[in-house]
Design a protein that fits this description.
The chain is α+β, with helices and mostly antiparallel strands. Strand 13 and strand 14 form a beta hairpin. The chain has a 6-stranded antiparallel beta sheet with strand order 9-14-13-12-11-10, with helices on both faces. Strands 7-17-16-8-15 form a 5-stranded mixed beta sheet. The longest helix has 37 residues, at 353-389. Helices cover 46% and strands 20% of the residues. Helix 5 packs antiparallel against helix 12 and helix 12 (353-389) runs antiparallel to helix 13 (394-413). The protein has helices at residues 20-23, 60-76, 82-103, 108-125, 128-146, 155-163, 192-205, 250-253, 261-272, 298-309, 333-336, 353-389, 394-413; strands at residues 8-12, 15-18, 29-31, 36-37, 42-43, 49-52, 150-152, 166-170, 176-185, 227-231, 235-240, 243-248, 275-282, 285-296, 313-316, 328-330, 345-347.
Length: 419
């Protein structure tokens, strides 16, 4: 029942931990030995021994709060210049108001009347309600996101997400599965069983690679390479019986050489079907081609369908068609050790449905900005007309400014309510 004081890992014991306030998950999470714990979460009914791995300022909770505060402060900084602009404009307007009666030859009472309007014009020109809209809506969006375990990088990120037609979903590997779609031999220099055994041996040397599904796709005996290495996303290489074999991207397998025309057409055909193509080859050329298709879990498919209904396409990170300029949403950041300020949008839990929440929050925030700006401008225009007419007094001008600010804040509070 105690609250966890600092980030760490479970050393002994197991039990449920309530970390919904931090990661926004829908239920308690079962923790066993070796699982991470986060400051601010509450332990359940079991006793857990854990080792603290970070000081309080470096905890996930503190970093999330700091990232949100930096995003809010970054959006409030430009509005610090508004009072100076308003003061300069008001003084200029006051000079015009004071000089106009004299230039027109009016009597002294007209001067006094014009002088009495200056404080009212100053109150009308003060842009508090107008400048309050963006910070207030941003703060409401950040507060609503915090309850769902989402960290935004500020108002600019909200604008990008609201206007995006495609978002990249990064960190949903557990919800995306890669399966063998088909394969075929490209040469007859080796028996098929030997080639498949070489493939299994290479993949088992790099189990975290994207070609891992090939390790269990065949029943051929494994040919263990004597020496192997992996080159990032290019592929896996190894020596079997003194011969170097490569498995991975076609151009990398062929040493950077251009693909032969028939092989290039075959690769393009598989890629047109949204398949990832891997070649197996040696120094003499390509030996076999493997096509891998990407499938998704039901909850990831449901999230992508919900995004599609909102007019946005969800693209999995690493796909060839993923646009570089599209906003990137990083999922499962807590378990992967991603800092909350490392990306524009960070989801602490591994829940693809949070992408829909992030999109709705961004659109509600942008709509709140527009509504608040419209209300403030319309109110300012009406007050300016009354001030120039002379029927607006200083107390009424101040009350009207307070009313406009309250209206803008009320519109900003609607951002919190996300369906």
């Amino acid at each position: 029942g105690e609250r966890i004081a600092g980030d760490g890992r479970v050393c002994a014991g197991s039990g449920d931990v309530d970390q919904r306030a931090l990661t926004g998950e829908r239920a308690r999470v079962t923790k066993v030995c070796g699982d991470p714990l986060y400051a601010g979460c509450r332990n359940g009914a079991q006793v857990l021994d854990y080792e603290v791995g970070a000081a309080a300022p470096a905890s996930l909770l503190a970093r999330s709060a700091a990232a949100r505060l930096r995003g809010l402060a970054r959006e409030a900084t430009p509005f610090a210049q508004w009072p100076r602009i308003a003061l300069a404009g008001t003084l200029g307007g006051a000079v015009v108001v004071l000089l106009a009666p004299g230039l027109a030859g009016y009597a002294l009472p007209a001067w006094r009347d014009a002088l009495a309007r200056v404080p009212v014009l100053l109150a009308v020109a003060w842009p508090f309600a107008l400048a309050l809209g963006v910070p207030a809506c941003t703060a409401s969006a950040l507060a609503a996101a915090a309850r769902r375990g989402i960290v935004f990088d500020g108002a600019e990120t909200l604008r990008r997400v609201a206007a995006a037609t495609e978002v990249v979903l990064d960190g949903v590997a557990a919800d995306a599965r890669v399966e063998l779609d088909g394969w075929q031999l490209l040469g007859v220099r080796h028996a098929p069983s030997r080639l498949l055994g070489i493939v299994r041996g290479l993949v088992e040397c790099a189990p975290q690679s994207e070609w891992a599904p090939l390790a269990t796709a065949f029943d051929a005996p494994v040919c263990v390479p004597t020496r192997s290495w992996c080159e990032a996303a290019a592929g896996i290489a190894g020596h079997v019986d003194g011969v170097e074999y490569r498995l991975g991207e076609p151009r990398w397998v062929l040493g950077g050489a251009a693909l032969p025309s028939p092989l290039r057409s075959l690769v393009q055909l598989h890629r047109a079907r949204a398949c990832r193509v891997a070649l197996l080859g040696d120094a003499e050329g390509a030996l076999a081609l493997f096509a891998l298709s990407r499938g998704v879990s039901p909850r990831l498919a449901a999230a992508c369908d919900a995004l599609a209904r909102l007019g946005v396409r969800g693209t999995l990170a690493g796909a060839d068609a993923a646009p570089r300029a599209a906003p990137r949403i990083v999922f499962d950041a807590a378990a992967r050790g991603v800092t909350p300020d490392a990306a524009a949008i960070v989801v602490l839990a591994a829940d693809p449905a949070r992408a829909v929440d992030a999109l709705r929050l961004a659109r509600r925030a942008c709509a709140g900005w527009q509504r608040g700006r419209g209300v403030a401008l319309c109110g300012k225009a009406a007050l300016l007309a009354l001030a120039l007419d002379g029927s607006l007094t200083m107390p009424l001008a101040l009350l009207a400014e307070i009313g406009l600010s309250v209206a803008v804040l009320g519109l900003a509070q609607r951002v919190r309510r996300v369906a």
